[in-house]
Amino acid sequence: MLRYAICLIVFGVVLAKYELYEGHAVYRISVKTDKQAQILHNLEVVNSLDFWQRAAPGYEAIVLVPKQQRALVEATLLFHGLKYSIEVEDVKPYLDAEHEKLSKFAVNSRSAPDSGSLSFDKIHTLEEVEEYLQALTVRFPTLVTLVTAGQSFENRPIRYLKISTTNFQDIKKPVVFIQSLLHAREWVTLPASLYAIQKLVTDITDGDLVNQIDWIILPVANPDGYVASHGEERFWRKNRATGYIPLDICTGVDLNRNFDYNWGRWSSDLVCTEVFHGRSAFSEPETQAVKTVFDQYSNRTQLFIDLHSYGSMILYGYGSEELPPNALTLHLAGVNMAQAIDAVKVAHNREYRVGNSAMIMYKSSGTTNDYAQSIGIPLSYTFELPASRIGFHVLGFLVDPEFIEQAGIETWEGIKTGARFVLRN
Which of 414, 415, 407 is closest to 122 using CA atoms? Predict the structure, then answer.
């Protein structure tokens, strides 16, 4: 799909909104053995397929297949005896439906980000997030500080908010670090981090968490990719780095495979895959920016949460299946957070699963939460937020506007439970 998109750009083809995805289908593939998982991995590499749920024995793979590759993919699956079903014959109508619903809600939105006021009835653009964070520093100068951690590949600022009643000067206070939108298409993670800011700054209902903890919240870790996902490439995942392959036929690095822990082991050195790990650990300016935050505050950071979607899971390291020495504590705190979320979740969403990322999903390397765990942050997690429902739940990256505020509410319950676990221990 990436190669197809670049070719259209190179040859000057102008597409209507989301026309790039017309005829793309979503396949659900049964995976029972390591051999079958490897077959799908090879299929991904050769055809640059976009796996939304990666292949692992005992789990179903979910993959977006471009229209022009469907016959080849189906023939390959048939040849190897892999059972599959087609969940969605054409994703474009669902993209159009999301766009239409979000646009309608946005027209009546009560948000006024330039005055430091947000409503959770729309997905905010990067510009609106920037305006909101800037406005908060004006409204609450003794509580919040806006810091630029670095610049993206396309030279956009990567900013995080520091929330502290003591201006981060009380070194006895623990730090909680929340990050979202490292993967550009995972829009539902943004309202979760923005809602946390609201509950810590403009609508404080848990004063102990504000007074006893210093907070770092980085709402948009991948600004270039996020901007691209608001254009024609709704399912864009990576950053926008170029120069990795002649003519830039494929672009972008998976930032959640670019951190310096087991870098390169369970990712890809092929640029056209969605899990391309870059030239080296921290080769990308976005991951370098996040590293500066860790470098400065890791000695005080007790809880790190990297917000992703989708799947309703709380995951901890390591992606190699090796468990950290404090795995029992990690699991206990994770279960507490999951139970808090489940207590307020939407009824039709499944309950959160908690566990080691490799054991309940698949092996991975170079991830943010593994790196955070490896440098001594005791409670480091990836949250996989639930899927929204627009027709088919499998299109889990799409966002129903009626779920936006709920995503913030339930994720905040998990975050604050994790924060209180820190205070108790």
Answer: 407
In 313-411, the DSSP E strands lie at 313-316, 353-356, 379-385
- pLDDT, tens digit, for every residue of 113-155? 888 888 899 999 999 999 999 999 999 999 999 999 999 999 9
- pLDDT reading at 30 higher than 90: yes
Residues 81 and 74: beta-carbon distance below 8 Å = no
384 flagged as catalytic: yes
Structure tokens at 250: 């494929």
**Residue 45 pLDDT level (bands cut at 50, 70, 90):** confident
Phi/psi region, residue 55 (left: phi>0; alpha: psi -120 to 50; beta: rest), is beta
Q: Are strands 144-151 and 157-163 parallel, antiparallel or unpaired?
A: antiparallel
Are residues 83 and 29 in contact, defined by beta-carbon separation less than 8 angstroms? Answer: yes
Q: How far apart, in Å, are the Cα atoms of 48 and each of 10, 40, 134, 275? A: 18, 11, 39, 10
- In the sheet that holds 214-218, the strands lie side by side as 144-151, 157-163, 214-218, 175-180, 301-309, 379-385, 313-316, 353-356
The per-residue pLDDT for range 202-260, each reduced to its tens digit, is 999 999 999 999 999 999 999 999 999 999 999 999 999 999 999 999 999 999 999 99
Tens-digit pLDDT profile for residues 91-113: 999 999 999 999 998 888 888 88
Whether residue 13 is predicted with pLDDT greater than 60 in this model: the reply is no
User: What gap in Å lies between CA 353 and CA 347, rounded to an integer?
Assistant: 16
Please provide the DSSP assignment of 267-296 as one string: SBS-TTSTTB--SSTT-SHHHHHHHHHHHH
Q: What stretch of H or E contains 42?
A: helix 34-47
- The β-bridge partners of 151 are 157
Question: Which pTM was predicted?
Answer: 0.94
44, 284, 286, 384: which is the annotated catalytic residue?
Answer: 384
What's the CA angle centered on 285, arms 280 and 286, to 5 degrees? 105
DSSP state of 386: P
